[in-house]
Amino acid sequence: MFICNVKLSNGWIKKLGITLIVLILVIVFIVVGYKFYASTSKVMVRDEIDTSHIEVNVSNYTDILKDSHENIDKYVGKEIKFTGFVYRLYDFEDTQFVLAREMIISSDNQAVVVGFLCACDNANNFTDGAWVEVEGTIEKGYYHGDIPMITINTIKEVSAPKDEFVYPPSDSYVSSEI
């Protein structure tokens, strides 16, 4: 039979407890510091992007759409280029349409139409559902409130892209100053 008799003094238990508490606090500070540093560096990287000409694609479509609606003034005057399909509502003017994409909103592939209001003199030359590529300038427009509107400089009909859908703004979406 093996018997182990350990005598613990009160001072030794206190030292062990204090050491564990200090170790836990150090780990917490390291984790919090890392998360703060990681989030700060993301913002800095976004701020360094050249935004004189905005190129919209599938991966940044809804991030730019959301940010431009939330911060119209910082986008006014910026050049933008992107592709979408022509979408009209009954109360649009003859020169207006939405350059749209369908955004997947659920796991069973339900989608809603999202996009930028556009204006150009030859808007009637393009039918609803036609895929077009536009280049234009972002202005402050009005449709049931202030919204970003693209004044089109060039527009051309294109074939539908391989990936027609966009997805909600990313979890890493951070509004950035342009």
Characteristics of this structure?
single chain, about 180 residues, alpha/beta, OB fold (Dihydrolipoamide Acetyltransferase, E2P), 2 domains, five-stranded mixed barrel, 7 strands, about 30% helix
Notes on the protein architecture:
With 178 residues, this protein is an alpha/beta fold. It has 2 domains: 7-49; 53-166, Nucleic acid-binding proteins (OB fold (Dihydrolipoamide Acetyltransferase, E2P), Beta Barrel). Helix content is 29%, strand content 31%. It contains 3 helices and 7 strands. The protein has helices at residues 10-47, 61-70, 72-75; strands spanning 53-55, 79-87, 96-104, 111-119, 131-142, 146-157, 165-166. A 5-stranded mixed barrel has the order 2-3-4-6-5. It is elongated and about 95 Å long.
Describe, in short, the structure shown.
The protein is built from three helices and seven strands. It has 178 residues and is an alpha/beta fold.
SSE succession: HEHHEEEEEE
User: Could you tell me the mean pLDDT?
Assistant: 81
The low-confidence parts are: 41-49
Number of strands: 7
Assign an overall shape. elongated
Total helices: the number is 3
Q: Major beta sheet, specifics?
A: 5 strands, mixed, barrel
Number of domains: 2
CATH architecture of the largest domain: Beta Barrel
Q: What oligomerization state is this entry in?
A: single chain
CATH topology of the largest domain: OB fold (Dihydrolipoamide Acetyltransferase, E2P)
Output the structural class.
alpha/beta
Query: According to CATH, what is the class of the largest domain?
Result: Mainly Beta
Order of strands side by side in the largest beta sheet? 2-3-4-6-5
Distance between the termini: 77 Å
Give the percentage of residues in beta strands. 25-35%
Radius of gyration: 27 Å
- State the fourth-level CATH superfamily of the largest domain: Nucleic acid-binding proteins
Considering DSSP H and I runs of 4 or more, what fraction of the residues is helical? Answer: 25-40%
